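Field: COMPLEX_INPUT
Field: COMPONENT_COUNT = four
Field: RESIDUE_TOTAL = 512
Field: MODE = joint
Values follow.
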Amino acid sequence: MISMYTLILGIALLVIGFYAMLTRKNLIKIVIGFSIADTGTHIIIVSLGYLRGKTAPIIDGAVNAVNAVQEVVDPIPSALVLTAIVIGLAVTAVMLSFIVEMYKKNKSLSIDDYQELKW
Amino acid sequence: MIKNIAVLLAVAGLLMIFLPVISGFQERDNLNELAADYVDGSINDLGTPNVVTSVIVTYRGLDTLGEVTVLFLATVGVGLLLKGNREDMIKISPLELLETTSSVLVALIMVLGIYIFTHGHLTPGGGFQGGVVIASGFLLLMLSKVNAKISHSIMNFVESFSGVAYVGIGIAGIVLTIGFLNPGILPLGQFGDLFSAGAIPVIYSLIGLKVGSELTSILVTMRGE
Amino acid sequence: MADTIYNAAAIIALVSIGLTFIRMILGPTAADRTVALDGMTIITISLIVYIAYYLNRIIYLDVAIVYALMSFIGVVAIARYLERRK
Amino acid sequence: MIPVIIIGLGVIMLAAAVAAIYFKSLLASIISAGVISLLASVIYLILGSPDVAMTEASIGSGLTTVIFLFALHRVRKGKSDD
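Field: COMPLEX_OUTPUT
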């Protein structure tokens, strides 16, 4: 039942972040919403790899190497999320540097002041 | 008004996408075939206790190469966008207590980072985590020492060197064994030792150096040169 | 008997995280929020150590070490930002 | 015991997410977003992936907060609002 709870938690975080990205006016708040949605997605992916009553896929004294296949959780979602988190940090840094440059041009953080691409 | 309705519709649509995932969800009991193969191969063929490490470095090694490339492009992008505005550099005032403490703590953090990425195949952790810890050590240096200068040329050298060595090990895998990024170019050794699992610790250490220098460059640029 | 004590400790840690979180939400100034964040990370480290005991894996303690160091750096950064703004 | 911990942490994380959206002060929003990352790493640990937990603990709590703070400082120099 554990992964059911975390799945619901991840979907709720994703929805809250998406709502923030759609409704907030401040550019930095939009990036914060993106980072919340990012965390939600990662929790969803890791929950889908959980197996009932099993433990981390690292062989040491607690896990027997002979029948490890019966004792560990799925390693593939962990590996995917691990790289996705680092990418998320890099994308956040690029977005924030765009915001700094835009602020230098227009002296405003509100998204209503940037109408060049509006139709 | 129309805007609010559109936002509500979009959020409801996102929920509708995930509704079947929740309603039809059941916790699995057994690994699927591919994952079972990875766990089995990681222990018996590669001699790596941490299965996640062997998936990242070997089975999905090409993905990791692409991911490191994306990180490099992000570093270049931040550097291009924020280059050359020295007037808004963040100035800090000297603080005796923090300066004394951090000179001890920075060394400890660096040792922890090196421990994390050299033991990536034995314990949780690896190149990405170790690189982030090393970048945090440099960040503490920037926050505590007033005149701390972190040389861009050394960072660039470490970054390029580890990138070239990473691809070089991959090509050595083609020449000496059967495929790109195959860790079988070094002997497997005793299961659970530090020097074991073929080339996996070497590759992960190179990834650690690369990630650490790239994130440090991003932090230095964001602070202002 | 020992398990009861450990479970009680976990409950106490959870309640403490909730209390510091309330201070973080209410806190009138930014300094209150920063101190609440610092307290929350330290309590969470004890929760991680409890989980490592409960699930019977010693290697989970590595995560607690990294957690402690990194949260310290975050709090130092926020403190320097607050000091600069005066 | 583990379900109780997950439900307690989950409620706090959702409250922090809602608070991060509705805070007036940007600094308070950034701190709330940091709290979400901090508690998410405990969730990853319970789900049996300590590698992901370590990454989230080091990136989410430390570096993301600091990058947001650097950008915030560059955007408003000297202007103080709580």
